[in-house]
Amino acid sequence: PLEIGFCAHLQIMDLSDNLIVKIPGEISSLQNLRVLGLGGNRITRLDGIAWEKLTCLVSLNVYDNRIQEVPEILGKLKNLDHLFLHSNNIKKEDLGKELLLKVERSLSPVVLGSMS
Fold first, then answer.
1. CA 6 to chain centre
2. What span, in angstroms and rounded, lies between the C-alpha atoms of 9 and 3?
3. Average pLDDT score, the chain
4. Taking the CB of residue 80, how many other CB atoms lie within 10 A of it?
5. What are the backbone dihedrals phi and psi of residue 37, each rounded to the nearest 5 degrees, phi first?
6. How many CB atoms lie within 10 A of CB 85?
Protein backbone atom coordinates (compact mmCIF):
# COMPACT_ATOMS: atom_id res chain seq x y z
CA PRO A 1 0.00 0.00 0.00
CA LEU A 2 1.15 3.53 -0.75
CA GLU A 3 0.59 4.50 2.88
CA ILE A 4 3.69 2.53 3.90
CA GLY A 5 5.82 5.30 2.40
CA PHE A 6 4.39 7.82 4.87
CA CYS A 7 5.91 5.95 7.83
CA ALA A 8 9.32 7.61 7.40
CA HIS A 9 10.49 6.99 10.97
CA LEU A 10 9.42 3.36 11.14
CA GLN A 11 12.25 1.12 12.34
CA ILE A 12 10.59 -2.29 12.69
CA MET A 13 8.09 -3.83 10.29
CA ASP A 14 6.80 -7.37 10.64
CA LEU A 15 4.64 -8.55 7.75
CA SER A 16 5.15 -12.25 8.48
CA ASP A 17 2.41 -14.81 7.81
CA ASN A 18 0.25 -12.58 5.62
CA LEU A 19 0.15 -14.50 2.32
CA ILE A 20 2.17 -11.71 0.66
CA VAL A 21 3.23 -12.60 -2.88
CA LYS A 22 5.25 -9.47 -3.73
CA ILE A 23 7.19 -7.12 -1.47
CA PRO A 24 5.65 -3.64 -1.69
CA GLY A 25 8.08 -1.30 -3.46
CA GLU A 26 7.04 1.49 -1.08
CA ILE A 27 9.18 -0.17 1.59
CA SER A 28 12.16 1.36 -0.24
CA SER A 29 11.19 4.77 1.16
CA LEU A 30 11.57 3.60 4.77
CA GLN A 31 15.17 4.71 5.12
CA ASN A 32 15.17 4.28 8.93
CA LEU A 33 13.97 0.68 8.73
CA ARG A 34 16.19 -1.60 10.81
CA VAL A 35 14.18 -4.84 10.95
CA LEU A 36 11.99 -6.26 8.18
CA GLY A 37 10.07 -9.48 8.79
CA LEU A 38 8.55 -11.15 5.75
CA GLY A 39 8.73 -14.79 6.80
CA GLY A 40 5.95 -17.27 6.18
CA ASN A 41 4.54 -15.63 3.08
CA ARG A 42 4.40 -16.61 -0.60
CA ILE A 43 7.11 -14.30 -1.89
CA THR A 44 8.90 -15.66 -4.96
CA ARG A 45 11.29 -12.77 -5.71
CA LEU A 46 13.22 -10.17 -3.74
CA ASP A 47 13.34 -7.65 -6.57
CA GLY A 48 11.02 -4.69 -7.04
CA ILE A 49 12.47 -2.96 -4.00
CA ALA A 50 15.43 -0.54 -3.90
CA TRP A 51 17.45 -2.41 -1.26
CA GLU A 52 20.33 0.07 -1.57
CA LYS A 53 18.09 2.74 0.02
CA LEU A 54 17.62 0.64 3.16
CA THR A 55 21.03 1.51 4.58
CA CYS A 56 19.91 1.08 8.22
CA LEU A 57 18.59 -2.46 7.66
CA VAL A 58 20.15 -4.79 10.23
CA SER A 59 17.83 -7.80 10.02
CA LEU A 60 15.91 -9.27 7.07
CA ASN A 61 13.77 -12.31 7.67
CA VAL A 62 12.43 -13.97 4.53
CA TYR A 63 12.30 -17.58 5.75
CA ASP A 64 9.59 -19.95 4.56
CA ASN A 65 8.69 -18.30 1.27
CA ARG A 66 9.16 -19.44 -2.33
CA ILE A 67 12.32 -17.47 -3.11
CA GLN A 68 14.78 -18.95 -5.59
CA GLU A 69 17.30 -16.12 -5.95
CA VAL A 70 18.82 -13.56 -3.61
CA PRO A 71 19.84 -10.23 -5.19
CA GLU A 72 23.54 -9.49 -4.95
CA ILE A 73 22.75 -6.03 -3.57
CA LEU A 74 21.89 -7.61 -0.21
CA GLY A 75 25.55 -8.56 0.13
CA LYS A 76 26.46 -4.87 -0.19
CA LEU A 77 24.27 -3.69 2.69
CA LYS A 78 26.93 -2.88 5.29
CA ASN A 79 24.61 -2.95 8.31
CA LEU A 80 22.80 -6.18 7.41
CA ASP A 81 23.84 -8.60 10.17
CA HIS A 82 20.94 -11.05 10.22
CA LEU A 83 19.60 -12.64 7.07
CA PHE A 84 17.18 -15.52 7.46
CA LEU A 85 16.76 -17.41 4.18
CA HIS A 86 15.89 -20.92 5.31
CA SER A 87 12.91 -22.88 3.99
CA ASN A 88 13.04 -21.37 0.52
CA ASN A 89 14.12 -22.76 -2.85
CA ILE A 90 17.59 -21.20 -2.61
CA LYS A 91 20.77 -23.12 -3.31
CA LYS A 92 24.01 -21.98 -1.75
CA GLU A 93 25.68 -21.76 -5.17
CA ASP A 94 22.92 -19.38 -6.31
CA LEU A 95 23.84 -16.73 -3.75
CA GLY A 96 25.40 -13.58 -5.14
CA LYS A 97 29.17 -13.36 -4.96
CA GLU A 98 29.36 -10.66 -2.27
CA LEU A 99 26.65 -12.26 -0.17
CA LEU A 100 28.44 -15.59 -0.31
CA LEU A 101 31.67 -13.88 0.74
CA LYS A 102 29.83 -12.39 3.71
CA VAL A 103 28.67 -15.85 4.69
CA GLU A 104 32.09 -17.46 4.25
CA ARG A 105 33.86 -14.75 6.22
CA SER A 106 31.25 -15.02 8.98
CA LEU A 107 30.88 -11.26 9.06
CA SER A 108 27.22 -11.79 9.78
CA PRO A 109 25.12 -14.67 11.08
CA VAL A 110 23.24 -15.96 8.06
CA VAL A 111 20.79 -18.79 8.59
CA LEU A 112 20.70 -20.95 5.48
CA GLY A 113 18.73 -23.81 7.00
CA SER A 114 17.92 -26.52 4.53
CA MET A 115 19.77 -24.93 1.62
CA SER A 116 21.78 -27.33 -0.49
1. 21
2. 13
3. 84
4. 22
5. -105, 120
6. 26
